[in-house]
Amino acid sequence: MADTPITRDMKIEQLVELKPDAVAYLFHKKIRCIRCGEPVWDTIEEAARLKNYSDAEIDELLDDLNRLS
Q1: In this structure, is residue 4 part of a structural domain?
Q2: What b/e readout covers 20-39, taking b as 16+ CB neighbours within 10 angstroms?
Q3: Whole-angstrom Cα distance, residue 69 to residue 57?
Q4: CA distance 45 to 9
Q5: How many CB atoms lie under 10 A from the CB of residue 44?
Q6: What domain range is 60 assigned to?
């Protein structure tokens, strides 16, 4: 599962299972994904859109997430 690509439609919950370090990265990018009341069933794209990320910014976010070990 470590080689599973991170995509726009991936749920936050699945991302965190695959790459636990993603929580700190998303927090740094102002996307709060693991705290009381935050839905972990949103997709990465939905969470980014809530923070007004553009398509290009989402693509950059996905590139960064895919590079995490």
Answers
A1: no
A2: eebbebbeebebebeeeeee
A3: 21
A4: 6
A5: 25
A6: 12-67
Each residue's pLDDT expressed in tens, for the chain with a length of 69 residues? 558 999 999 999 899 899 999 989 999 998 877 665 566 688 999 999 999 999 999 999 999 999 997
The pTM assigned to this predicted structure is: 0.85
Place of tokens 């590139």: 63
Residue 2 covered by a domain: no
DSSP track, the chain: -TTPPP-TT-BHHHHHHH-TTHHHHHHHTT---SSTT--TTSBHHHHHHHTT--HHHHHHHHHHHHH--
